[in-house]
Specification:
13 helices; elongated; 6-stranded antiparallel beta sheet; alpha+beta; 8-stranded mixed beta sheet
């Protein structure tokens, strides 16, 4: 796990939605403080439940999480080394916002978590199930969680079993001689403060709606530009001198698409593009858009880095290898498939935001057009690059010169196939 707290992540990373703050946060924090469990040594009474939970659900990771003001503390854990994370990136912060357990079958496909540092980095969360954990006064102070690095489903019987295990933890939190007094106090307080609670709920809903709107904006634009658009109402176009453009396109798509139903076609495209998005975020590449079966991404904007070309190349290799494996799997099942062509080019371009209702962050210039031609002149299953891009990485790659290739409206363009990185 990581202590990263930014919802925007490093350049190019997929966005995620931090958990909202419950309306009863003050009371919830008071309950947690009274329990006096934060930052305390491990206790066998909790560790026993966590071990049992992991064994019953056959998962690599299980833990009891307590949600403080700005962090989650793992009171008991198995399968992870760190004792806690920022609350902003915690799955458990979302779990305490609802009464039923929070079940995430595949975090990479959930907009709330696809770019979460715990998904694109250690421990690479794919499946998550977290049951809210109530303190003696009924406030949700944390969760009992199971985590897997593979996507999976969760049956109602498994949800019920997780609830029973949660009850074991809650029993350890209770002090039987004060529960009744505290319950009566809560009941009286709820009767007197009904109108205030309704108001607080409305405020919470407005806060959540505002936060989700901001996160959607960050999902469309890089963080710096989202802030500029929010404060100024527009984004100033910028010329960048050295940007890596990655184009990926499916070879044989038209033929395969003719053999597939509409839902199967869209499902397969979504499966591939979701993985491409995850790969781009992993390597710090900024995904811009898909155009039909084409995928456009860049490295080097809005900020450039010395390793932009290598990061884009690693992303291209991972996309290529994923599509090779997927082709083999679909061939074995007798299903339609397609290969991928990938082109990489480096040069100047202009980046900006267009539109008002459906805004889009886009790039323009000869570099973009040339990258498209590089991709079209490639071969299925290979990474084809221009000479300027090859010059940037030539000392670190194993490549095959192709000479100058005729390209539409470009004349002859020198190209190289890059097959792998050198073992340094």
């Amino acid at each position: 796990m990581t202590n990263t707290t930014s919802a925007n992540g490093p350049e190019g990373q997929l966005c995620y939605i931090p958990p909202a703050i419950p309306a009863n946060e003050a009371e919830r924090q008071a309950e947690l403080l009274r329990l006096n469990l934060m930052d305390t040594p491990a206790e066998e009474r909790f560790d026993r439940v966590v071990r049992l939970t992991r064994r019953l659900f056959d998962v690599p990771i299980s833990y009891i999480s307590l949600l403080g003001e700005d962090r989650q503390w793992l009171k008991s854990r198995i399968g992870v080394e760190v004792e806690g994370t920022s609350r902003q990136i915690s799955f458990c912060g979302h779990a305490i916002l609802q009464d039923r357990p929070l079940i995430i079958p595949d975090a990479r496909k959930d907009h709330r978590f696809a770019g979460n540092p715990l998904v694109i980095g250690e421990p690479f969360v794919r499946f998550y199930a977290g049951h809210p954990l109530h303190g003696p006064n009924g406030y949700k102070v944390g969760t009992l969680c199971v985590v897997d690095r593979r996507p999976r489903s969760f049956t109602e019987k498994e949800i019920e079993l997780l609830g029973e295990l949660t009850a074991l933890v809650e029993r350890e939190l209770e002090l039987c001689d004060v529960i009744q007094v505290q319950a009566e106090a809560i009941k009286a307080k709820d009767a007197l403060a009904k109108s205030q609670m309704e108001l607080a709920k409305t405020v919470e809903e407005l806060q959540v709606a505002k936060q989700q709107a901001e996160e959607l904006l960050h999902n469309i634009l890089p963080s710096e530009l989202a802030s500029e658009l929010r404060t100024r109402g527009s984004v100033e176009p910028v010329r960048h001198e050295k940007v890596v453009v990655l184009f990926a396109d499916f070879a044989g798509f038209t033929k395969a698409a003719a053999e597939m139903g509409a839902s199967d076609l869209v499902e397969e495209l979504n499966e591939c593009f979701c993985h491409f998005d995850w790969v781009a975020a992993k390597h710090g590449v900024e995904k811009l858009k898909t155009i039909g079966d084409g995928y456009l991404a860049v490295a080097g904007i809005p900020q450039s880095h010395p390793d932009d070309a290598l990061r884009a190349l690693r992303a291209a290799f991972e996309i290529r290898d994923y599509m090779t494996e997927r082709k083999t799997e679909r061939e074995r099942k007798g299903l339609p498939f397609w290969d991928v062509r990938i082109g990489l080019h480096l040069g100047p371009l202009v980046a900006g935001v267009v539109g008002v209702r459906k805004i889009a962050y886009d790039v323009w210039g000869d570099t973009v057009n040339t990258a498209s031609r590089i991709e079209s002149a490639g071969e299925p299953g290979r990474v084809n690059v221009s000479a300027p891009f090859h010059d940037r990485v030539r000392e670190q790659v194993i490549s095959v010169p192709r000479g100058s290739i005729d390209c539409k409206h470009k004349g002859k363009v020198e190209m190289f196939f890059i097959d792998s990185l050198k073992m340094l």
